[in-house]
Fold this sequence. Notes:
The chain starts with 10 loop residues before the first helix and ends with a strand. It has 626 residues and is α+β, with helices and mostly antiparallel strands. Strands 4, 18, 19, 20, 21, 22, 23, 24 and 25 form a 9-stranded antiparallel sheet that branches. The radius of gyration is 24 Å and the shape is globular. It is 35% helix and 19% strand.
Amino acid sequence: xxxxxxxxxxxxxxxxxxxxxxxxxxxxxxxxxxxxxxxxxxxxxxxxxxxxxxxxxxxxxxxxxxxxxxxxxxxxxxxxxxxxxxxxxxxxxxxxxxxxxxxxxxxxxxxxxxxxxxxxxxxxxxxxxxxxxxxxxxxxxxxxxxxxxxxxxxxxxxxxxxxxxxxxxxxxxxxxxxxxxxxxxxxxxxxxxxxxxxxxxxxxxxxxxxxxxxxxxxxxxxxxxxxxxxxxxxxxxxxxxxxxxxxxxxxxxxxxxxxxxxxxxxxxxxxxxxxxxxxxxxxxxxxxxxxxxxxxxxxxxxxxxxxxxxxxxxxxxxxxxxxxxxxxxxxxxxxxxxxxxxxxxxxxxxxxxxxxxxxxxxxxxxxxxxxxxxxxxxxxxxxxxxxxxxxxxxxxxxxxxxxxxxxxxxxxxxxxxxxxxxxxxxxxxxxxxxxxxxxxxxxxxxxxxxxxxxxxxxxxxxxxxxxxxxxxxxxxxxxxxxxxxxxxxxxxxxxxxxxxxxxxxxxxxxxxxxxxxxxxxxxxxxxxxxxxxxxxxxxxxxxxxxxxxxxxxxxxxxxxxxxxxxxxxxxxxxxxxxxxxxxxxxxxxxxxxxxxxxxxxxxxxxxxxxxxxxxxxxxxxxxxxx
Length: 626
């Protein structure tokens, strides 16, 4: 590990000379569709609508969030809140074009810009005290909020000018001596009694790369190169560690903070798109594969307090895919981590076209993300558990009168806003269907002609999907359909004709001359599967199993079953599947409920996401075995 300390690094030194190589633009394999091109009206849209109405257009106190910049903040890092609230609202506006939401955004951006100081900073800190420990992290979110606004709401030159002033001020403060090094600014991990880490400050990489792409002004790319040169943390080079396939929970010493690490690597993806450096691409892909295989749990999120990093409160990587049934865990799967993982998977999807990235997004959306959301629509759990009380709203944040806002309250809506962003995309050969929620899509063909896709389904209530393909004129192109990894026996017909060789965890390419009456019929294999517990370091966590119906994780709910956590033995059929019966839910708020055969009779299980534990009741997802 010592050779991956910051001193004497060769790989990142080579990165720092790339500033002159700026003409290349690495093309994405898939591209997002334009604003409002995707309109959902099925299962997922109800959650999106609820968040927009009750959170982004509802209780968010935008004026009070701006006041932290005008009057100072009473607690570290509170300056992140404005940018987080605004960036999800901007992504929702991209989806809805809601004029009421635009009025809110226009007003709060104008309010924020009125706080810009004479040195160009938009900061919670007086000029003479800059930079303080959490200031770069806060400024990162100021920049991201303004960039989302500029990209999707209003490309106002005044906003771009404010962004440049903010960035130029940061450049004037941060850098090699006599300036302050970026890895000398931060609060981690001295906040938990360990050596300085300061991983949070290097997440400025993403907004600086976005600003460079907006302006093509080299000083912003130079500063991004400087961030990478510095290695991301005070003592460990996380970029070289990723290149050498170091396990995520061993990166960054005592503080392998999952959320911040993923934020930095999102910026690294943008850096790669400009520089096309092969080593950078490998870092990006290695981290993706290592997180996917070693950290992401049954419900699509990761990070835990035990057994490796108890002082980081469940927000650090913890070999969580293997340790997820460890009974010593008390906090795990922070919502900020899950949403940032979802966004990172979106980057991988666009960059590579790898369908596993959508498998990961789908797993998190239908289980971890919706399972963290308050039924009221205004807030998210800070962390989630599999067994016990599923949700926990306690964590870093601030109370505005009776409203407690945490970082996860603010990040959860961003995950919802990304659903239509990834649901259907475009490629050089034609449409790409990633998620199978009901909706309508308006897009262009490879020949630049209009196409409408109508997706008709009650998924995930069933695995039946119909897609009507309606090009303006007959045209030959490829329709790419993601075949989920969980659907082992997918059946597809085009105009009644069976399509052969449908393989899980791939895209099925249907190349034909499409006309207005063409339709695709899909039946996904939703059969219930048993998943054995991974074998982590604590043997007490080994004798468990879980159930999944299609992509939906099931759990026992104390609200309807007082014996919810008793050991059982599941009875599978001859093929190893569990012959469950889907029934009408006992409680009105439950989305799905199933009767499960066991050796001692039948039990009921519900979808993990819709079980309401905000009343302090319990669930059991990893089932103890007799």
